[in-house]
Design a protein that fits this description.
The chain is an alpha+beta fold. Helix content is 39%, strand content 16%. The strands form 2 sheets. Strands 1-2-3-5-4 form a 5-stranded antiparallel β-sheet. The protein has a two-stranded antiparallel ribbon with strand order 6-7. It is globular, with a radius of gyration of 19 Å. The N and C termini lie far apart (51 Å). It binds adenosine-5'-diphosphate. Adenosine-5'-diphosphate binds next to strand 1 and strand 3. GO terms for molecular function: ATP binding; transmembrane receptor protein tyrosine kinase activity. It comes from Macrostomum lignano. This is Guanylate cyclase. Keywords: ATP-binding, Membrane, Nucleotide-binding, Transmembrane, Transmembrane helix.
Length: 270
């Protein structure tokens, strides 16, 4: 398979891979935690596996996603370290983000956020840094001409050092929805992520059905009226710009990252 050849230089034999636990469920199969031996050193990693019942077309999509991911090199994008495809199940081996996805991370810390103490005191700085990391990751992707198309809190991973890394470069969704997405639709979705951050993982459209959300978005409705009252005015303004109905009125991700960096602590829990 030609795709395998394109990954040949990062192929590792199975005896250099050690699997020790399940981290989550992915589109292609389970995601496992383990270690990989690279340059004589064992390092922690996450392994995306391809289920054994996968069709040839799913195998191709899995390998294409790995080929795409290996081109990205940025501190806010999950790094593909290696692949192991000589045996089944195939593994795409990524750097480990110890705290998992940001949505689960925030939801499980909701209670602490309301308690006075060290954690809540440092939250505005921590949350603003999260938002800046995601903005920088997207700025990089847009710079290399890649539209993410599924910017969401669940697709942001948290490392042991609390750096955020964007993941999920699902190619499967591209074929079906090609044409609907632009750099500025990523900017629109990014502001939803800001909403999810300040509300500690609240579901953006509450109890509305998918159809109701689609209709509302087409009408130009935004979450602006549903923002908590105590959202920092500066952040509210930034979100409003990202949700401008006309795409060219929305800022670029570079502008968003710069604006957030100018106002440390503006992304606070509400
Ligand atoms: P897919 O894109 O195939 O649907 P995801 O990338 O969404 O899979 O991964 C599914 C879950 O596995 C994530 O929500 C997260 O909990 C876990 N996970 C994925 N990649 C990593 C990683 N690099 N480090 C730690 N956990 C990860």
């Amino acid at each position: 398979m030609e795709l395998k050849q394109r990954l040949a230089d990062i192929e590792v034999p199975r005896d250099r891979v050690s699997v020790n636990r399940k981290l989550g469920e992915g589109a292609f199969g389970i995601v496992l935690g383990g270690e990989v031996q690279l340059k004589n050193q064992w390092i922690p990693c996450a392994l995306k596996s391809l289920r054994d019942t996968a069709s040839n077309s799913e195998k191709c999509t899995f390998l294409s996603e790995a080929t795409l991911m290996r081109q990205f090199k940025h501190s806010n994008i999950v790094c593909l370290l290696a692949v192991s495809t000589q045996e089944e199940p195939f593994y795409a081996i990524m750097e480990m983000c110890l705290h998992g996805d940001l949505k689960t991370y925030l939801i499980s810390r909701r209670v602490h956020a309301r308690e006075p103490g060290e954690f809540s005191a440092s939250l505005p700085t921590t949350l603003t840094n999260f938002a800046i990391d995601i903005a920088k990751g997207l700025e990089y992707l847009h710079g290399v001409k890649y539209i993410h198309r599924d910017v969401a809190l669940r697709n942001c991973l948290v490392t042991d050092k609390l750096t955020i890394k964007i993941c999920d470069f699902g190619l499967a969704r591209e074929a079906i929805q090609y044409g609907l997405f632009t750099y500025k639709s990523d900017v629109w979705s990014y502001a939803i992520v800001l909403y999810e951050i300040v509300t500690f993982g609240k579901f953006p459209y509450g109890s509305r059905s998918n159809e109701e959300v689609c209709d509302a978005v087409k009408r130009g409705d935004t979450l602006l009226e549903h923002l908590p009252v105590d959202v920092n005015p500066l952040l509210r303004n930034l979100m409003a710009c990202c949700w401008s109905f006309e795409h060219d009125k929305r800022p670029t991700m570079t502008e968003v990252a710069e604006e957030l960096a100018r106002h440390p602590g503006c992304v606070a829990a509400c």
